[in-house]
Amino acid sequence: MAGTTMINKPFSPEETRRIVHHLQQPAVFLNMTCDWPVLRWTAEHLSSCLGDRRVRFRLGRKEKTNTQAPLFETQCSYVEASVAQFLSWTRGQSGTDVGHFSEYSSSEYWAYADYKYIAMLFQDQPFMFEHVKWAEFGFEGRNGRESTLWIGTEGANTPCHLDSYGCNLVLQVQGRKRWHLFPPEDTAKLYPTRIPYEESSVFSQVAVLHPDLRRFPAFRGASAHIITLQPGQVLYVPRHWWHYVESVDPITVSVNSWIELEVDDVARVNEAVTKTVVCAIKSARSDDNTDDWLNPTEEAVASHNENMQYLNLAVRACAQRERGCCHSKLSPNLRDTQPVKRDSDGQIKKNSDGVRDCAPFSIPYGPYLIPVHCQQELRKMTPEDVEVNSSNNCAVRSQGDCAVSSDAAERSKFAAAVRLDQETHERSTGSTQCYCADGTSEHLSEHYEGSTHTTITTNNLLDCLVHPDIIARVTELLLEKHTGSDRTTRSS
């Protein structure tokens, strides 16, 4: 048609969907969203669209971001306000309506509205859903209806966590956000906890920017993947990758789409077991069990009967699926392996998304798809190493306004912070660091002189009970009992 400009995207929907299916590490897509109307969704534009509609903002003290303990959502303040009031507050405009933000100083607090479902925000403006075109990533029919909106100020952050289900596509709309990502293999080094409890998230006990290496020594061996996402870029976060996210500009807006590539019944059983155990123990009254343990994203504590009903449904669904897959053995790892499926001719079958399983495929990294590379263990790196690796990793850049930040300074600062914490502790304790064959470490002086005995708390016990390896084994046993395979195993 006359007057219509066709924009050639670097990848077709089919190519993009196949890339996402095969990606095993975070990557950034460039020049894929240049014509998406959602790029006009600045905070000011959203303010005019939403009017007086109120959303919930989370507030945290800026000074607590620099401590050696994560600032969990249970420790934050919350206000209900319009986006217009939020903007007036961030600008320090005296005499304007800032609502409940008036109780907080913008110089002392950051604010963040996260996981706001676009389907709910714009339920009276459904045309807004079409501004987000995830169908161009190969997910047919997917738009903004299945996405969430994030709006924050500089310094706003989410505690380091992993998502229990699926993967994420994140489009940066306004400002920049810095992502610190860690692979699933680093789970033990991130010291996972289920307190606070949220059904879809596992949190880390480590403040990754300022780690307390005396409490969490294994974090020295964690591999940080750091990227600053620019407007127009899309970050792919694979399943079970840990991530800590912080806003680095005065105002940031991003759109997130959570995608479950395949129905993961095992993960649902794992989560059902975890929820049942956590709710049962944290609902018990005791002197040391009075903390605010339920994340604000969870509406209420489910009863034991409700949790057991959900657990039974999850086990049945998983058992039926397992029977359909020839009783394949469950993987105890966080990332479940998928068997290759073949048709009667021996050809690899396509899954429900039309993507060939385990087919040979070379991911087309280049100017429009930038990998967020793995790095060496932090305790083995110098700032110079990080800077060189960073510049090499991000040497290829696209044209126009879609350039991935190298983050050399940030990676150097991150690695230096880990080393500084380690050196400070060794000077103050006079201990000698010993690195063991399994990658863990011991302070020899503490090992030989003995350490102070501490009381085991309810949360200590809970962390052990819901450890990923324990939960995976419980899931195996439950499925064996449900299907009767335990009797078969013993008699064979």
From TrEMBL:
Residues 104-274 form the JmjC domain. Keywords: Cytoplasm. It is found in: Cytoplasm. The keyword Cytoplasm applies. Its main location: cytoplasm. It comes from the Eukaryota. GO terms for cellular component: cytoplasm. SUPFAM superfamilies: Clavaminate synthase-like. The keyword Cytoplasm applies. May play a role in cellular stress response. PANTHER family: HSPB1-ASSOCIATED PROTEIN 1, HYPOXIA-INDUCIBLE FACTOR 1 ALPHA INHIBITOR-RELATED. This is Hspb associated protein 1. It comes from Amphilophus citrinellus (Midas cichlid).
